[in-house]
Amino acid sequence: MSDRRIGVYICHCGGNISDYVDVDRVRKAVEGEGGVAVAKTAMFACSDATQQEMASDIQEQHLDGLVVASCSPKLHLHTFRDVARRAGLNPFQYTQVNVREQCSWAHTDDREGATDKAIRLVRGAIARTALTEPLEPIIIETVPRVLVVGAGISGLRAAIGLADLGISVYLVEKSPLAGGWIGKLGKMYPHGKDGKSLIAQLINELKKRENITLYTNAEIAEKSGSIGNFDVNLRVRGQEDTTISVNVGSIIVATGFDAYQPEEEEFGFGLDGVLTLPQFKELLDSSAGRPVFNGREIKNVAYIYCVGSRQQPEVENANRYCSRYCCNAAVHASIIALEKNPGMHQYHLYRDMRTYGKFELMYSQAREMGSYFLKFADDGPPVVERGYDGKLQVSLKDLLTFGEEIEIKADVVVLVTGMVPRKSPELVDVLKLPLGRDRFFNEIHPKLRPVETMVDGVYICGSCQGPKNSIESVASALSAVTQSASILKKGYVDLEPLIASVHQDLCNGCGECVATCPYAAIEMEQQQGRSVAAINRALCKGCGGCVPLCPANAIDLKGYTDAQVRSMIDALLKETCQNE
Amino acid sequence: MDYDMLVVGSGIGGMESALKLGDMGYKVLMVEKEPSVGGKMILLSKVFPTLDCASCISTPKMAASIHHPNVTAMVYSEVEQIEKKAEGKFQIKIRKKPTFVNSSTCTGCRQCEMVCNVAVPDQYNSDMVSRRAAYIAFPQAVPKKAVIEKQGSSPCYHTCPAGIKAHGYIALVRAGKYEEAYELVQETTPLVGSLGRACYAPCEGECSRYEIEGSLPIRKLKRFIADKYYAGNAEPKAVVRVEPNGKKVAIAGSGPAGLTAAFHLARQGYGVKIFEAEKQPGGMLRLAIPSFRLPREVVERDIKNVTVLGVEIETGVRVENIGDLQQQGFDAVFLATGTQGTRKMNVDGEDLDGVVSSLEFLRNVNLGKELSLKDKTVIVVGGGNVAIDSARVAVRLGAKKVIVQYRRSREEMPAHHWEIEGAEKEGVEFQYLTAPVKFNGKGGKLAGAVSIRMELGGADAGGRRKPVPVEGSDYVTKADMVIIAVGLAPDTKNFGSTIKLNMNETISVDPETLQTDIPYVFAGGDVVTGSSMIVNAVGQGRRAAFFINRYLTGQDLKGEEYDYRLPAVDKQQVIDRQQQYSVLPPVENKEVWHEKVSDFREIEPPLTEEEARYSAGRCLDCGVCSECSQCISECPANAIDMSMKEEKLEVEVNSVIVSTGFKLFPADAKPQYGYGKHKNVITGMQMDRLLAPTRPYNTVLRPGDGKVPDNIAYILCTGSRDQTVNNQLCSRVCCMYSVKQNQLIMGALPLADVTVYYIDIRAFSKGYDEFYEQARGMGANFVKGRVARVEEVEDGNLALYYEDIDNGGKVTRAEHDLVVLSVGLLPNTEVFDFFAGEQLEADEFQFVREVDEDINPGRTSIEGVFVAGTASGARDIPDSILHAGSAAAQAAAYVERTRMQQ
Asked: Of A418, A452, A485, at which residue does a domain stop?
């Protein structure tokens, strides 16, 4: 029997857990487990009141281990570790059991079974906790410098934002010029600001700040180190490529998007007069007077929305997502077109008008100025052809006139193309950034950690994360500034001590672990004349990949030692074994 | 204490800004007007598109915001003023609202909530259920501390001269806690039974129901609880007497003032002795008020509440010399001798045998002197309650005819109308605009009165029209007795040499402390105020006891407030607050009528228990907290402090972030959809509450009849994209929260059909369109078409009329059993009231204007003031969080810049 004093708390989560798991039965089943000193249930374990109750239990009952059976550790691991810390218990003597995502929600049809499973999971956690030892976080000093990748509007604004907080910035731009998409734009929605001028203004601000260094024609070549202290090699193209090494505390990725490039013949793409939205916008921006195409005044324009977005699942590699900015951008383009030529006829062929929020005003304005809006069905896209008269002809079934077949003669057909993830395999490769199902870079959680990635210290912002307009990109860039500064201004970060450790007296120096470590965190060193493996604490991520490979069983993962995992398995299977 | 940043509002945007700035090392003050941090998000069920619980996202941030070493969260507090000063700093004025609960000792155990007797609509459940006046906002509240809501004093309580907690005992009667109700009244006065019968109840005139369908019978409720208590407790319960403090107080007079003062002083350990000139104690309660209104036993039982405390009453002793009392060892004296003198008319024949003063007449009857007026004619002169009492006593003594002569008209008559009506029903004749000018006699014995008619002339100094005799209108009435009831006056001859008197012979005191010009002598009741109401005298007695105690314990008499009552609540506000005002007529007043009254049996029947509960149930809980004191005795931590005051504080900050959020579109502003009229039309927020883990009913049901709905309609764009309600903006979140609810409903009620009436589905952000497609895949039915109107049909079901665009565009009717209005977001314009000096600019829709959104989202018109989240426009949660991060980055940059410049 364990002589530990462990506190176990089982959460109702309102009803998220207790609707499907009999939490009282779980409590009764585990309260007699070896080492359990306190076993309670709570309506919301994460609530402040329960947190305080746990803290006072830890102190008054002299608990030396804590188990909370609630939701995914992604949500509350740190919450309860903090409770332990505040109460004077080592936070690494805490174990979270996920009885919600991995139990109650998965077994809504089987209360008995879900309850049995929860009992086993909690027992496993108690067994693990009984073998925990106090661990101290690895403290890494942070360097007050940030690498910003991409000098579009997000990257530029992020760089300035960081510099204003006293943090030095290396700003890296792949192309010869800073400015990105916005640097090529004229008037933008909704405030009518000129894209080129905004970029010029930001570059001007950039120049005023001595603690920003801009490298154009440059990209990331290599990265090592970890949060707070990364070493990054930049490759700067020139007549001769040069490599520049920088040492930074965090990295902000602001590499933007690519415009969707329609397939040949997709909505007539390839026909003369079928333009993408960026092409049409450029045409408008460059027209001083009435817009002209191929030397002829544009009198009729048809816009086809959702090109490359909200694609039907049958499409190969379908972009299922909505590109967010394009309804607004297309409506805005039509307003500019009408300002330049009030006689122009404009036909908008859409699925849902997503001029959200205050952008609704632009939609109203476009209608008031004479734009026609026609709605086509998700499965009935318009067809673009060259008519007998040589003009472009767009035909569709308009749902707003109850399925009437309509044909539109157009001088120009604008394919309202969305955003697609920019292909940057080198970034994915070097930074190991995870992608979402839409293939944009993915944040950890859109609400809890919206600019953080699975790679500690590497943040994302702007449209590399998903479609956004310019203003939204800037807001997320500044949010990434805030996130970076909240780490770097403190001067240090705590890293998880749940990493590999080598029993050097057992190590036979075979070096298999060195070869297998994906983070280059293991090196051989000389100890008393022997060559043995040693772990670099800042680099080891605790993935455990080396542990089973070691022929001498000389590596253990702290917090998940073989003994702990074995005891968890025993506890999980306890009843089954007895039954047999 | 000064801070780097002030964050106004602790919704998701405010918390995000505050926590990130705190992490950066800045000192942040976050001010929240509600009792808990968390804003509106914490009230939601789950959040799109990840279907996380709102609680799971919010609670860690909420807990962090009060535990973060660099963040100070001030809840239940309001920013009153933000003023920009030199050097770019801001001077902030904050008002901390009193919670009436000591937050450092409150453990959040909710005992106060369980025992609280006042229920009001629960705003944290969208008013679908009620909460208590003492409450914790919601189960995940941070900090988890109770607050007691007081919107002011209830008018009944506020107007009571004695400070009796009328609302409190009404609330207790409503809850059936009669003994507690009795004890609550007895906190203030021992005279529970007497006041229950003879109080003129100024509270009833102030009752918020008074002007609508009639006041609550507040006095009769008091009688009900006294009767109930006395029936079970013929003798007072044994009290644990307070350890005597060794000091003695003498009280002259055993009327309501003297008895109440004695009661309070004895309870504090003073040795109290009352000296009463008459043979029996009780003062006017016994001497002046006839027993058919106030039975003797009731007075006697009330007096026992005083004597049980060890108070000694010596009758038949008139206090002649105050100095003697001091020599007898009394440390203080309270003079409460009332108005024992009667005013004279100063007319001929006033001293004839048969002409008596009202007080003498009533005293004789009340003290049991045999007297018969059989076959006699009695004239009562005067128009006050004493006159009416005298007349009604005369009737009971067998008088053949009783005439009341009053020199003004009925409208001016000071007696209460129900007393006059009672007398009329008993056969008393009223001669208005009439007064005797002379009494005729024969052999020193009264024979009749010569009276004269009056006319009302101009107003006198008091504003009443003055009666003017009509020349030659005099006439004679034969009479056997004349009772003169033209006013009472104090009899203070004995004291005149020692203490200062007023011109009208009342004793001169400091009106606040009731101290006379001799420090150890206090005076109160009618002897100070002149003839008044019992309840006034009770108030004076209580006040005197309070200040005598301060005097005898060596404390300053001035400075400490005797009365901590808040200002009375505005009655219109009370009426407006009612979700549904139901007219509940008062219980009819009844008196027991005999054909010819000939005895002194009590004339007013008591309220039955049913009537009492019904009557108490009519209470509108004007001030919200009734001050029934139940929470005080229940709280295991002794955390309740009813005397808590609001606090004002000023701080200086370097930068400000306003994250004051939004207001929901009021669904009743779109009357076509029937919200507020049809019970089964609810808002999206209400549906979110029905689906939340802390949901009020533990399932989704329709409010009209509790039926589990199986055919639910959503009307999108309610109050958004709609010129008719003056909001042409899209609210950005309603499509998605509706889609989220669709998914949750299909999970909770697998058999229910869900239909969404929409214009465009705006699923525009990361993962949203996929989420929308998921709902469609699960079976939600999306119908393009705007709903024109909603009508209620049988069984509380609802008929929707809409343009069916997908099917030929006809106006179509569809029936559903629950309609959810997807209401939009409107600006919260309160934020603009904060600013003094430089004003914060609004955009054309009254959201906070962002002056340079392209480069600096969150920057406002005032340099150094930033806006986070929905305060500047509708936003979903992820966008609000990013916006808050943006505001935080700029606020930090501003602080750094202003620091550099200094």
From this structure: A418
Cβ contact, residue pair B730, A51, below 8 Å: no
> Where residue A287 sits, what CATH number does that domain have?
3.50.50.60
Closest B-chain CA to A47: B140
- Of chain A, the end-to-end C-alpha distance in Å amounts to 23
- Beta-strand (E) ranges in A418-547? 419-421, 458-460, 492-495, 500-502, 522-527, 530-535
Domain count, chain A: 4
Q: Where are the beta strands (DSSP E) in B283-326?
A: 312-315
A573 plus A530 within the same structural domain: no
pLDDT in the model for residue B368:
87
In a domain, A140, yes or no: no
Decide if A285 is inside a domain: yes
**Does A126 lie in the same domain as A28?**
yes
Same domain for A291 and A376: yes
List the one residue out of B763, B420, B426 whose CA is nearest residue B599: B426
Q: Which residues in B819-843 are b (16+ Cβ under 10 Å) and which e?
A: bbbbbbbbbbebbbebbeeeebebe
Q: Do A354 and B762 touch (CB under 8 A)?
A: yes
Last residue in a domain, options A457, A478, A493: A493
Q: How far apart are CA B342 and CA B284, in angstroms?
A: 13
From the list A290, A261, A254, the residue with the least C-alpha distance to A275 is A261
CB atoms B763 and A322 under 8 Å: yes
Instruction: Kindly report the CATH number assigned to the domain that includes residue A513.
Output: 3.30.70.20
pLDDT at A483 (0 to 100): 97
Domain range for residue A106? 6-135+562-579
A285 and A324 assigned to the same domain: yes
In a domain, A386, yes or no: yes
Do residues A250 and A388 share a domain? Answer: no
DSSP state of B833: G
CB B256 within 8 A of CB B525: yes
Domain assignment of residue A1, yes or no: no
Q: In what order do the strands lie in the sheet with A412-417?
A: A274-276, A412-417, A300-307, A345-350, A372-375
User: For residue B294, which of B395, B379, B366 has the smallest C-alpha distance?
Assistant: B366
Which helix (H) or strand (E) segment holds residue B900: the answer is helix B877-901
Subunit contact B770:A321, Cβ cutoff 8 A: yes
Q: What would the pLDDT profile of A225-265 be if each residue is shown by its tens digit?
A: 888 999 999 999 999 999 999 999 999 999 999 999 999 99
Residue B361 vs residues B371, B400, B501, B802: alpha-carbon distances, Å? 10, 17, 28, 81
Give me A361's structure tokens: 């005003």
Within this chain, do residues A315 and A357 fall inside the same structural domain, yes or no?
Answer: yes
- Which chain A residues in 157-216 lie under 8 Å from chain B, judged by CB atoms? 157, 161, 164-166, 188, 191, 193, 198, 201-202
Angstrom distance (rounded) from CA A470 to CA B421: 81
Same domain as A111, residue A153: no
Q: Are residues A438 and A567 in the same domain?
A: no
Residue B864 and residue B655 in contact, taking contact as beta carbons nearer than 8 Å = yes
The complex scores an ipTM of 0.85
Show the tokens assigned to A202.
């930001």
Report mean pLDDT in 10-residue bins for chain B, 902 residues: 94 97 97 97 95 89 91 97 94 97 86 94 92 94 93 96 97 97 97 96 95 93 98 91 92 97 97 95 94 95 96 94 92 95 87 93 91 93 94 94 94 89 92 94 92 89 84 92 91 85 92 95 95 94 97 88 88 83 80 71 92 96 96 91 94 98 96 95 97 90 94 97 96 98 95 96 97 96 96 96 90 97 97 96 97 97 98 97 98 94 78
Q: Is B24 close to A165, i.e. CB distance below 8 A? A: yes
> In one letter, which amino acid is B744?
L
**Local structure of B653: helix, strand or coil:** strand
The one-letter amino acid at B115: V
What's at A469, amino acid-wise?
Answer: N
Please report which helix (H) or strand (E) contains residue B97, including its range. Answer: none
